[in-house]
Amino acid sequence: MTDPLKAFMQANALTAPAFAPDSRYHGLDTAQWTRPDGELVSYVRRRFIPPPENFATLHTHRVAEGDRPDNLAATYLGDPQQYWRLCDGNGVMRADELIETLGRRLRITLPEGVPGGTDV
């Protein structure tokens, strides 16, 4: 029996846009690799974290005990799944890096390249 997901991927069904506009992967290219056994594997090309200076600061948040990236994204951005925007605005790869240090000042930013903010 054929795996439906594998069949979907092999049918080259991942064509742009493969990800929703609010996804951190939106706009990234997909590629394919052929394994030594001949199986075709589709994947998303690597995403690089944009430089923090590409983001205008709206607010800052001082990390407190119990903070979570998803809750901060819900509070400041209106969507817990947008935690990755906090990561980008603060130049970190893993969301947990945002809250590792109590007292750290997190930048709450506009999307990349959107001018404005207070740059506090």
Automatic annotation (TrEMBL):
Superkingdom as given in the UniProt entry: Bacteria
Name of the featured protein: LysM domain-containing protein
Lineage of source species: Bacteria, Pseudomonadati, Pseudomonadota, Gammaproteobacteria, Oceanospirillales
